Every structure is written in structure tokens, then in C-alpha cells.
From TrEMBL:
Keywords: Oxidoreductase
Domain Aldehyde dehydrogenase: 21-482
GO-annotated biological processes: gamma-aminobutyric acid catabolic process
Protein name: Succinate-semialdehyde dehydrogenase (NAD(P)(+))
Key word Oxidoreductase present: yes
Length: 490
């Protein structure tokens, strides 16, 4: 197979199990649609428990040899995979745009972002160190070694169909684990393309297995892994209710869990902030992928002294954003993922307006463009009683809340069961220290709206989950520690 492929060459429609492309055991299939048009792009395997068990069987057979492979050999496979992803960045970017809807520039950017995790963990594969424990008794040597946990089940969302699965598979393979995976039903094609490139890179049969399933069959298919004692870890990105379900259902076999769950991120603008920088940072953090990211600011708190000015500055910039299909080279925001997403956005805006919010920009569906478009929106006079205050909107809506002092801002920002990301803008170094310590979040942006990096630990606190992805800490979630005590040495 040529290393550089066209978009159609990347599209696969079947499951990948034990190094082979196979249809679902039931023969059933479901359609994947383009959110920009509602047209069906392809039909893929609609898997069941039987397919999930077959994937786990293959992963179990492959685990001993992959676990025992030299770290540098695992690293070499991952480096080849990274190179293939980079060589096919344009085609992968177009595929992301096709099935997820984000503009091509963002789709290609996601490819580069996801590839960075593959490269990072390829390097980290050779740096899995243990410890020699200082001698406590004569004649005894104590050591701690790190070992792969075993089979990992990776379950990923639709908003970043390449990056999310890459940053789960890469550390698992680097650690010596084998993988069974299921991408979101809205965006399976990108994940299947990524696995195709992994196959070409030389990932051995059974080491990486991927099944696809419709919304109706996803729960029973994943349940097969939750109750399988051979599957030792679940890594999931998605909603908090689903994360809690996975934790409950996997408790019987005491699996290790990494859960990157919902957010309700605050963005605080103090009156001493650089307002131009704050507007730019908010645009970067909020409108990436049309606001469909778990770290998008959902509540924007602006201090009274700059509230009206900031709102006007923001509204001008937001009104200028171009909403268009991903095929438009000038598109900055594409369609939302589906009708359910659009309905939730409209419901939040309507509820806010009914309770007194003022629309400074947007505030309407853009049906002339297609079925799933909504105008980027700025709302003034938001209050905690509005639905958008306590529910994650997951769309291009910016509600502005007014606050008077620092203590009120921190209290309001933390008044949520979630704690994934928080942002604030201030030029007061003392305030920066106080607010950084006061915010309850796993990720804090200080005068910065773009936070993600393969070198940084990504994850939340409270009901936003636990475990970390990326960085040197991200590998630990795929490893267990074995303590060895050797006696009779004297």
C-alpha cells in the first residue's frame, strides 16, 4: 500500500479485528452522515457483543508478545505510525471535515495535534523507569517495576475523532498494552482510517482492534468489555453520566479507569485585564470546533468596570466570524454535529432571552446554510438561573455574567459539580497567584485561551473525571507497579 493516500483510499467500512477487516457478525450496518448536508457518506459495521468479544479475544492472544517486545521496537512502530499520519494529514483533515463538519483548517490542525501524541508516546515508550528502593534490611533487595496493565478498552467522542483516539491508543501501545476500541457512532470513519495507517505501520495483528456500533448497539457492545475480566482498563472521553455508568458497570472486575468527562468552564475577565488579549483568548478557546469542545468556556464572568466595553468588543469580533460548510476555504465555524445539538443550543438561547438576556450578536439558526448551523452568539445579562449556566451548551454561545469582586468571581466559577478547565485574564501578579490557587479545575489558563499540548497533563477534578492524558503522567495510567523483594542475599 502506498504511504500517501487519497481520501477515498482512507475510508473503511468494516471492523478491524485481529489484523483483518471484517463485517459485523450480525451483518448489520448503519449510515454515517455529513452534518453539513445530512447526506449519508458511508455505511459501517453495526457491531454487537459478539464483535466486542472477538476483539477482546484477539487482544488477549496478542498481549503476551506485545508486552514482551523491546520498548525500542514498540517505539519504532509508533514512529512509523506518526510518519504515516503526517504524510496523510491533508486527506485525514478532509475526512474529519466530511464526517464531523469542522472547517478543513481545523480538521488538518486536529491531525497534527493527534499525531503529536503518537510521537510523544513513541519517545516515552523507552523511558518507563522503575526504582531501586533504598535498602531497609540486610540481605534484602527491594525494587519497583512498571508493567502494562493489560487489555485497554478505548471509547471516544465525536468532537475530535482523530485526536481523542490517538491520545488513548498511543500511550497504551507504548506501555505494552493491547487495545480494543469503539469510536462515536457519528464519526467512525476517521478512527478506522487511523487504524488503517497503524496496520501499515506494522502494528501486529490483535494488538489494535476497533469496532463500530450504532447508538442502539453501542451499550451492549461496550458492556461485553465492561464485564470481561481480561480487559483491565477503560479509557473514556465523553459525558459525565456515561462516565458514571462505565465506572459502575466495570466495578465488578475492578478495572483501572481514566475518565475525561463533561465540563462547565468559566472564563473570568478582571477589570485590570488586557481586554484585546482577553477577547482574542476567548475567541480561541470558545469557538474552536464551533464551541463543541469539553474545555470551551461555558460561562464568561466579566467585572463590572469593563462589562459593557468587553461585551461590545467581543460582539464585533463574533459577528465577523464566517459560518460555512467545511468545503468553503474561508469557513471559521461549520455545522454542529447533529439536530440534537442544534436543538439544545436553541433551547438555551431561547431560555436565556426569556429570562432577560440581551442578544449582542447571533441568536438564530442559519437554516439557509443547511440543517445544523447556528450563528455565533453573544448574550448580555446572563444569570445563574438560566439553563446555560448549569448545562454545558456545547455550541457557539457566549453568555456574559457580571461580577463585582474577586471573591465573587472565584465563588461563581467554582459553583458547579464540574472541574475540567478554567480561564482568567488579569495583569495583577498577586491576583494571578490567588486566583490560580482558588479555581477548582484540573486545567487553568492564565491570560491564555489555547491550553492543549501533548507535553501537558490533560484531565479534570470533581465530576469532570480522573486520570490524565498526555505528558509523562499520561503513561502511568496504562501501567501497574510490581514490587519485587529478593531475600537471602547475604
Amino acid at each position: 500500500m502506498a504511504s500517501k493516500l487519497e481520501l477515498n483510499d482512507l475510508i473503511r467500512r468494516d471492523n478491524f479485528i485481529d489484523g483483518k477487516w471484517v463485517a459485523a457478525a450480525s451483518g448489520k450496518r448503519f449510515g454515517v452522515t455529513n452534518p453539513a448536508t445530512g447526506e449519508v457518506i458511508a455505511d459501517v459495521a453495526d457491531s454487537s457483543e459478539a464483535d466486542a468479544r472477538a476483539a477482546a479475544d484477539a487482544a488477549a492472544r496478542a498481549f503476551p508478545a506485545w508486552r514482551d517486545a523491546l520498548p525500542r521496537d514498540r517505539a519504532a512502530v509508533l514512529h512509523r505510525w506518526h510518519d504515516l499520519i503526517m504524510e496523510n494529514a491533508n486527506a485525514l483533515g478532509r475526512l474529519i471535515s466530511l464526517e464531523q463538519g469542522k472547517p478543513f483548517a481545523e480538521g488538518r490542525g486536529e491531525v497534527l495535534y493527534g499525531a503529536s501524541y503518537v510521537k510523544w508516546f513513541a519517545d516515552e515508550a523507552t523511558r518507563i523507569y522503575g526504582d531501586i528502593i533504598p535498602q531497609q534490611q540486610r540481605g534484602k533487595r527491594m525494587t519497583a517495576v512498571k508493567e502494562p496493565v493489560g487489555i485497554v478498552a478505548a471509547i471516544t467522542p465525536w468532537n475530535f475523532p482523530l485526536a481523542m483516539i490517538a491520545r488513548k491508543i498511543a500511550p497504551a501501545l507504548a506501555a505494552g498494552c493491547t487495545v480494543v476500541g469503539k469510536p462515536a457512532e457519528d464519526t467512525p470513519l476517521t478512527a478506522l482510517a487511523l487504524v488503517l495507517l497503524a496496520q501499515e505501520a506494522g502494528v501486529p495483528p490483535g494488538v489494535l482492534n476497533l469496532i463500530t456500533a450504532s447508538r442502539e448497539n453501542a451499550v451492549p457492545a461496550v458492556a461485553a468489555w465492561l464485564h470481561d475480566s481480561r480487559v483491565r482498563k477503560i479509557t473514556f472521553t465523553g459525558s459525565t453520566p456515561v462516565g458514571k455508568y462505565l465506572a459502575r458497570e466495570s466495578a465488578e472486575t475492578l478495572k483501572k479507569l481514566s475518565l475525561e468527562l463533561g465540563g462547565n468552564a468559566p472564563f473570568i475577565v478582571f477589570d485590570d485585564a488586557d481586554l484585546d488579549a482577553a477577547v482574542t483568548g476567548l475567541l480561541a478557546s470558545k469557538f474552536r470546533n464551533g464551541g463543541q469542545t469539553c474545555v470551551s468556556p461555558n460561562r464568561v464572568y466579566v467585572q463590572s468596570g469593563v462589562y459593557e466595553k468587553f461585551g461590545d468588543m467581543l460582539a464585533k469580533r463574533v459577528a465577523a466570524l464566517k459560518v460555512a460548510p467545511a468545503t468553503d476555504p474561508d469557513a471559521q465555524i461549520g455545522p454542529m454535529i447533529n439536530a440534537r445539538a442544534i436543538d439544545k443550543i436553541a433551547r438555551h438561547v431561547d431560555d436565556a432571552v426569556a429570562q432577560g438576556a440581551r442578544i449582542l450578536a447571533g441568536g438564530k439558526r442559519l437554516d439557509a446554510l443547511g440543517p445544523n448551523y447556528y450563528a455565533p452568539t453573544v448574550l448580555l445579562d446572563a444569570t445563574p438561573q438560566m439553563q446555560l449556566s448549569c448545562e454545558e451548551t456545547f455550541g457557539p454561545i457566549v453568555p456574559l455574567f457580571r461580577f463585582d469582586d474577586e471573591a465573587e468571581a472565584i465563588r461563581s466559577a467554582n459553583d458547579t459539580p464540574f472541574g475540567l478547565a478554567s480561564y482568567f485574564y488579569s495583569q495583577d501578579i498577586r491576583r494571578i497567584d490567588r486566583v490560580s490557587r482558588g479555581l477548582e479545575a484540573g486545567i487553568v489558563g492564565i491570560n491564555e485561551g489555547a491550553l492543549a499540548s501533548e507535553a501537558a497533563p490533560f484531565g479534570g477534578v470533581k465530576e469532570s473525571g480522573y486520570g490524565r492524558e498526555g505528558s509523562k503522567y499520561g503513561l502511568d495510567d496504562y501501567l501497574s507497579i510490581r514490587y519485587l523483594c529478593q531475600g537471602c542475599l547475604e
